[in-house]
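User: Could you check the structure of this?
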Amino acid sequence: MFSIALPTGRLAKDMVPLLAGTPYELPADPGKTRKLILEVPERGLRYILVKPSDVGVYVARGVCDVGIIGKDVLAEEDCDVFELLDLKTGACTLCVAAPADYEEDTGRALRVATKYTRLTREFYQSIHRETEIIKLHGSIEVAPLLALSDVIVDLVQTGTTLRENNLEVIREILPSSARLIANKASYRFKQKEIRAITDVLREKTEQGL
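Assistant: Sure, the predicted C-alpha cells are below.
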C-alpha cells in the first residue's frame, strides 16, 4: 500500500482539483468526509488526513510515503524529508503585519505574536532585531489590537482579515505554497511509485490544474 498524507484545513480544498482526473483521485472530498483514513485497494493507495502541522511528522517517520504540505509548515517544523515539487497551489505569504498607525520603538525589544516561532526568530535574528516572541495558536490578528504585541507574523493570502482588523503588511518573510514531500527511506525503496506521483502532479501543475 502506498500511503499519502494530506492536510486538513486551508489546503484541503485545493487537493480535490489537484488530484482529480489522475490515478490519485480522491475517493471522497476531505472537506466533507469525517473519515481520516481513505483507502483505494484496487489502486493500492491509502490517504491519511491529518492536521497540516502533522503531515511532515507522518512522512518523516515513515507512516506515509509522501505528503502534501505548505512550505510555511515545512520550514517551521524543519521536517527531515525530501521536498520534491512545488505544486503551485495554496499560495500565500508569511508576513509581518502591524496596526495602520504603528510606529516602531527601536529602543526596546519588539513584541511579536505568532505561531511561527522558529521562522520569526530566524527572520529577526537575520536583521539583528531583539524580539520577545509570544506564541499564539489562533486569532493572531487580535494581539496588537489589545496591546499584547506590537506586531504579528502570520500567513497572508488575500489580506482581507488584516484589513478588517485595521492591520497592514509591513514586511514579507516567506512565500508559501503546497509542496510534495517524501520519506527518505521510501524515496530509496519506492522510487517507481514516488516518481510516478511526482510526474503526474508536475504535469497537472504545469497545466494549471
